[in-house]
């Protein structure tokens, strides 16, 4: 085991390179730092008798930036012992590109996104915002094994909805059918939308899907709005802003083949959705952290009327 690095009054610009060097050399680093629980009324960087105050979040962020796992800290009186470890990190994103990439046997099924408290809360808030009536029609695009559909019961306990889930992965849809036998699931490539038999929906939900490689994102998005949303209907989309590896959740969207986060593509796509939706009379909310949630609800005019989607139908 390596000697602990003891930090009290050292600024982060000294700590960062020293911890990075230790990790590069040994694949792990032990740190002894001031215990932030001793004084909860401080701001990051404030000096206390024990050293510079930082919240535990700062050490989690340091571990994230240095691509390692922060083991559960140990409290030793006025000090906190931290252990950072590099893990081999099996990524969920390094898989084949076939239609079963997210299938029943894929690594993806090990993940339950609703364990992310921020995403869970954002999605429940988004669902409350869209004010679904009992019997509302809901289209879930890229529904996969249907895990996200449990949100409907959580947001609207006791309500019945008509839910249609579409995806290219037949094996994931089989799992969804076992979870939600009362909903309907179809194997469908979203690039082939519009699909007249689907009809229109009061809510179009698409989580972590539209940016997938192979999806003609812009065209599919406009088609969903124009051909599959009912007048007065709402939209909830989410875009990943993290990288998932076994044992580690790392903040920030990546460009293809980039290790470091770069949010430019995410911001471009969000801006495009938001501009288009606002232009067509929607009120748009953007929330989230590891996954960004965009909620679009029709603006209610001064008379209480909701705008129709005729303008969206123009496709402009
Ligand atoms: C990252 S997963 C997201 C799944 C789920 N919505 C979630 O948030 O956990 C993307 C989903 O989109 C599906 N998908 C990818 N390309 C598709 C396409 N062209 N048509 C329909 N579904 C597609 C995948 O099979 C997968 O289930």
UniProtKB/TrEMBL annotation:
Q: Which GO molecular function entries does the Swiss-Prot or TrEMBL record give?
A: methyltransferase activity
Q: Which CDD domains match?
A: AdoMet_MTases (cd02440)
InterPro entries referenced in this protein's UniProt entry, alphabetically: Methyltranfer_dom, SAM-dependent_MTases_sf
Give GO BP annotations, semicolon-separated: methylation
Q: Locate the Methyltransferase domain: which residues?
A: 134-241
Q: What keywords tag this UniProt record?
A: Methyltransferase, Transferase
Task: State the protein's name.
Answer: Methyltransferase family protein
- Species for this entry: Deinococcus peraridilitoris (strain DSM 19664 / LMG 22246 / CIP 109416 / KR-200)
């Amino acid at each position: 085991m390596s000697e602990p690095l003891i930090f009290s009054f050292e600024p982060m610009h000294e700590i960062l390179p020293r911890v990075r060097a230790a990790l590069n050399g040994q694949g792990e680093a032990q740190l002894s730092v001031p215990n932030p629980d001793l004084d909860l009324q401080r701001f990051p960087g404030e000096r206390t008798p024990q050293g510079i105050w930082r919240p535990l979040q700062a050490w989690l962020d340091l571990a994230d930036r240095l691509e390692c796992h922060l083991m559960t800290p140990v409290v030793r009186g006025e000090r906190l012992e931290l252990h950072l470890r590099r893990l081999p990190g099996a990524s969920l994103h390094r898989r084949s590109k076939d239609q079963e990439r997210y299938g029943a046997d894929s690594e993806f099924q090990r993940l339950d996104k609703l364990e992310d408290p921020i995403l869970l809360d954002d999605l429940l808030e988004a669902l409350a915002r869209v004010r679904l009536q009992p019997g509302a029609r809901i289209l879930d695009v890229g529904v996969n094994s249907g895990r996200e559909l449990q949100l409907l019961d959580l947001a609207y306990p006791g309500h019945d909805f008509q839910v249609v889930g579409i995806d290219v992965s037949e094996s994931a849809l089989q799992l969804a059918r076992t979870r939600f036998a009362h909903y309907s699931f179809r194997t469908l490539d979203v690039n082939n939308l519009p699909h007249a038999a689907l009809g229109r929906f009061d809510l179009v939900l698409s989580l972590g899907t539209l940016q997938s490689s192979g999806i003609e994102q812009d065209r599919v998005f406009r088609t969903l709005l124009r051909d599959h949303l009912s007048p007065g209907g709402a939209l909830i989309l989410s875009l990943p802003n993290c990288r998932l590896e076994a044992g580690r959740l790392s903040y920030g969207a990546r460009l293809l083949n980039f290790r470091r986060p770069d949010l430019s593509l995410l911001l471009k796509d969000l801006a495009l959705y938001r501009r288009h939706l606002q232009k067509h009379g929607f009120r748009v909310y953007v929330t989230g952290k590891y996954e960004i949630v965009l909620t679009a609800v029709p603006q209610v005019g001064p008379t209480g009327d909701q705008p129709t989607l005729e303008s969206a139908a123009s496709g402009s």
